[in-house]
Automatic annotation (TrEMBL), chain B:
SMART domains: WD40
InterPro entries: WD40/YVTN_repeat-like_dom_sf, WD40_repeat_dom_sf, WD40_rpt
Gene: Gnb1l
Species, as recorded: Phodopus roborovskii (Roborovski's desert hamster)
Intervals holding WD repeats: 15-61, 203-244, 290-322
Protein name: Gnb1l protein
Source species, domain of life: Eukaryota
Pfam family, one: WD40
UniProt keyword list: Repeat, WD repeat
Amino acid sequence: MDPALPAVRLTVQEAIHTLSSSEDVGHILSALGTLKRYLGGTEDPALPEKEEFTTIHFSAVLRCLVSKLSPGWLELSPDGQLEQLWESFFLDGPPDQAFLVLMEAIESTAGPSFRLMKMARLLEIFLSKGRVAALMEEQCRPQTKPSFPLFQETLLNKVVGLPDRLGNCLQQDNLTQFFPQNYFPLLGQEVVEVLKAVVNFLQGGLDCSVSFVSRVLGKVCIQGRKKILGVLVPQLTVLTQDSCLWQRVCWRLVEQVPDRAVEAVLIGLVEATPRPEVLSRLLGNLVVKNKKAQFVMARKLLFLQYQHSTPMLQSLLGYLAVDSQRRPLLVQVLKELLETWGNSSAVRHAPLEQQCYVSKAILVCLAHLGELELQDIQDELLASMMAGVKCRLDSSLPPVRRLGMIVAEVISSRIHPEGPPLKFQYEEDEMSREMLALATPGPAGACSSETGVPSLASVATEAPVETPEKTVDSDVPPVQQQGPDSELDSDDEFIPYDMSGDKELKSSKEPLYIRDCVEALATSEDMERWEAALKVLEGLVYRSPEATREVSVELAKVLLHLEEKTCMAEFEQLRQRALVAVTVTDPEQVAKYLTTQFYGLNYSLRQRMDILDVLVLAAQALSRPRSLQRLSQHGPPGSGTLCAPALAISQPGNAVAPDWQMVVEERIKSKTRRFSKGCPRRELSGGPNEFNSVAGYFFFPLLQHFDRPLVTFDLLGDDQLVLGRLAHTLASLMYLAVNTTVAVPMGKALLEFVWALRFHVDTYVRRGLLSAVSSVLLSVPTERLLGDLPDELLEARSWLADVAEKDVDEDCRELAVRALLLLERLKDKLLSISSP
Amino acid sequence: MAALFPPPPGPRFVLRGTQSPVNTLHFCPASQALGSPLLFSGSQSGLVHIWSLQTRRTVAALNGHRGQGVTWLKTLPQGHQLLSQGRDLRLCLWDLAEGRNTIMDAVQLDNVGFCRSSVLARGQLCWMLAIPGKGSDEIQILEMPSKTSVCTLKPEADAKPGMPMCLGLWQTNSSSRPLLLAGYEDGSVTLWDISERKVCSRIACHEEPVMGLDFDSQKAKGVSGSAGKVLAVWSLDSQQSLQVYKTHELTNPGIAEVTIRPDHKILATAGWDHRIRVFNWRTMKPLAVLTFHSASVYCVAFAPDGLLAAGSKDQRISIWSLYPCP
C-alpha cells in the first residue's frame, strides 16, 4: 500500500472528530477546509490521496456532515460561510455518493423538520445543477475500478424512484421540482446531456457504455412515465439526423434496455416518433437482432393490441419497410395479418375495432410493398383474402361487410393491377375514406395518385370561373343590352334556364280505382301503366279505405310478389309505402296474411325482411293519432340498431288542438307571471292507440315457427340476418304496443324468445334481443312485470349483467347497460311506491 | 353543362278564383278609361274575369255567355271596349268605361267550333273582324261596328283543309290590303288576300290540326303550333308566298296557343303537357321550360311591358316575369 494513504485516514478521522465534538467555528472551518482540499482541483494533495478520499472516506464525511445539521450548528458562523462550505461537499464531490447519502438521509429523517427541508432544498439544487447527468456520466465512463452491481442497482432505483420517495417523505411539503411531471422531463434532458458526453468520449477515442442509461430509460418506461420520451425523442431526432455516431449510440441505447423493459420502451418510442425514417434512425435493425423486440413490434402491437392510432401504425409498418433487411419481416407480417383477417372465427368473435385495426394495418402494408414482393406471395394473399371476404360478406353488420369489400378491392387491385378491377358497391363514410386514403400513399400508390390528383386540382380551379353571374333583383338572367332591332346581336342574347326537367309526360295512364291498380300491377304488360299504378297506389289506398278493404289481401299479395320490371326510381320505397298503406287500412287481414307468409316456403330473404319492415312501419302508423298518419315518414327502419326510444321522441305534439284551448292558454299565459322561464311546452294531445286491437295479429304469429327450419328458410342456421331483423322487429312491435292490453302476454312471450336465443353467436341478433328486453321493460306496466314475470326478469337481469361486462361488441354492451338501467329505474319506482 | 344554367324561375304570382279552367287571356295596358293595367281571363264556365295587376284581385266578373265557355277575348284600340267570343254562339262587345259592364252589341256566330276570331283595327272607329263562318270550312269577314259582311272565304272544292282552327288578321305597313292567316284542321296554314278573296299561299307544315299561330309583320315571319310535336316557323317572301323556315321538335305533343311578345324578342307556347315554353324568336333557341301548372295550359299572353300570363285547365293563372323588355 501507498505510504501516504494512512495519512489520509488520519486526517479524515481527526476532522470528523473535530466536527462532531467542537463548538468552535474556527476549528470546524479549518477541519472542513482540510477535507475540502481533497476535492479541489489544486495540486497540493497528490492524486492517489484524492482518490483514496473519494472512494473510501467521502461517504463517511458526508454522513457526519448530515448528522451535524441543525439550525444552531449552521449559525455558528454568522456570515453563512459554514453553510456554503457544507453544501459544497455535496455539490462538488462525487455525485453518486453524494446522491445516495442525501437520499438515505432524507428517507431516514422523520417528519417535517428543519433538517429534512434543508436537505430537500439541497437535493433540489443538486438536480438543478445537472449533477444527475454527472452521476450517470460517471456510470458510463470506462470503469477502472471493479464495479459493484448492487451499488448500480441501488443508484438506479433511487434515480428512477426519486419522485415517489420524496413524495412519501415530504408529503404536503413536497417541492414542485420533485413532482413526476417535472422530474421526468428533467431526467430526459439529463439523459440527452449524458449521451452528448458519451459521444464526445467516443470521438476522443475513449470506450464507453450506455447500459446504465438504458436501464434508467427502461425502468422509467416500465413505470409508464412516457414524458421522458417526449423530451428525449425530438432532441434525438435532430441529433441523429446527420451523424452516424449518434445513430449508433441510439441503437446501442435501445439494445441495452433490459428484456423486460423492451416492450415499454419500444411502444413509447413508436408512439412518440412521428415518422418511419426517424424511427429507423433511432432503432436501427433492432427488430432483426432482438427476438423480444421483434415480438413486440411484429406481433404484439399488431395482433394483440388495437388501441393505437393510425399514424402510429403507419410509422411502425413504415419502419419495417424502410430497410431491406427488415422487408422480409414486413412481408411476413402481411401474411400473418391476412391470415388473421381471413379467419372466420376471428371475424365472429373479435370486436369491430380490432377488425378495423387489422384491416388498416393490411392496407398500410400493401401500400409499402412493391409489385415483385407481392407477386411472390400472391397465392397466399389470394387464398386468405377470399376466405376473409366470404365470411365478412356473410356478416350481418354493415361495417364488417364494408371492411371486407374495401380490403378486397385494394388487395385485388394490387395483385392484379392490369386486370379488371374488383368493385363493390358500398356507401362511403368517414371510415371507408380513411381506409382508402391509407392504401394510396407511399411509392406503391404513386400510380393511382397520378390520375387522381390533377383532376381534383383542375376541378377546383375551374369551378368558380364558370359559375354564371346572377342578378339579384328578380328571377331574371342578365340580358345584354343591344340595339332594339339589330339582327347581328350575338346568339346568347338571352341566357337559357336549365331545361333538364323537360321530360316526356306520362300522366295519362294513372289508374283511378284500387281495383284497376291491382289489375295493372298484377297483369299489365304496359310498363307505363304499371309504373303509374305503383306511383298512385299509396294515395288511392288512403283516399278510399272502404274499397281497399275489399281487396286488401289480394293487393298485399300482389305487392309482396312485385318485382322491379323496369328501371324505376324509388321502386322499393313506393312498394313499401303502398304495402304499409294497405296494412294500416286493413290491419287484421293483411297482418294475418303477412305473418303467415313470413314463414312461407317460396320467398326470398329480401321478401321476408320486407314483410318485417312493413309490419313495423304499419304498427308505427297505427299507434299514432290518425291525423298525423300521412306525415309519418316511411323510411326503412334502421338496419343497425333500431333504437326504440327514438320512436317515442318522434311523436309530434302539434296535433290540431281545438281553438278555444289555444285562446284560454294564451289568456292564462298573459295573466300569469312566472319566476322561472323555460321553453313553453305544449301538451301532447291524446288519442286512442289503434294498434291496441290488432297488436296480437302482428306479433304472435311471428314467434310461432322460428325454431322450425324449412327447406328454404332456416332462421337458426344460415339465415341469421333475418333472425336479427326478426328480433329487432319484435322489439319494435313490443315497444309500439305500449299501453295496450295485450302488452303483458306479448312481453312474456318475447322474454321466452330472448331466453331461447340469448347465447346466439351473431352480434346483430344479440343486439335485437337486447333491445327486445328494453322494449319489454318500457312497455309492460311495472306492477304487471313484477306480478307476472318475476322469474323471467331475474334471469334476464343476470344475463344482462353478463353481457354488459363481457360481450365483444360495444353496441351490445351499451344496450345491455341501458336495459340494466331500466331495471334499476323499475326497482326505484317500486320502492317509492311501497315506502310511503 | 346543364348545371351551369340557372334553375327555371317560379311564377311571379298566381291568380286563383276562376273556379273553372281558363280558356283565354288578354292584357290591357293602363288607359284613361280603365285606369291601372288589367288582365282579362275567359273561363270555361262562361265568365270573363277582370283582374287588376296591382291588387292581384278580380275587379269584376262579366257574365254574358250563358254558362258556355269563353274562347277568345280582345280589347279594341279605344281601350274601354272588349270583345268576347263564347261557345254560346255569340260574340259580345262590352263597354267597360267608367265601371260600366254592359253588352253594347253582339254578333251571332254560326259555328260552334273552337276557332278563335281575329280583329284588325282599320280606323278610329272602324275595325275588321274574322270569324268562323257558317259552313264548317268557311271564314267570314265582317266590317264593324256595322256588322256588314265583307266576304266569306271558302277554300277551293278540292283542297279539303277541314275546319279553320285559328285566325290571324293583319296588314302590311305599306299597303292597306288586309290579309288573313288561317290554320286549318289538316295542319296547313293558308294566307288569304281578303280584298281579292283568294288564297295567296298555302303550306302544309303540320301533321295534326293547327291549334295556334302568331305573325310578326316586321320580320314577315310567323309561327304555328299544332296538336302534334312540331312547332313550325314560316316566312313570307315578297311574292306573298309562305315557306317553312324552320321547325322545332317538342318533347311532348300539343300546343294550345303560340304568342310572340310585342317587342318581337321571344315567344311563348302553351303546352298540353302542363308546361310553358319560351323561345328566342329570332333563333328559335329554347330558353326556358316553365313548370307550374298541374294540367294542360290553354293560353299564353304577353303584356306590352313583357309580363307573361298563362291560363290552365287547373283553374289557375300564373304570371311570369322573364327577360324584361329593355
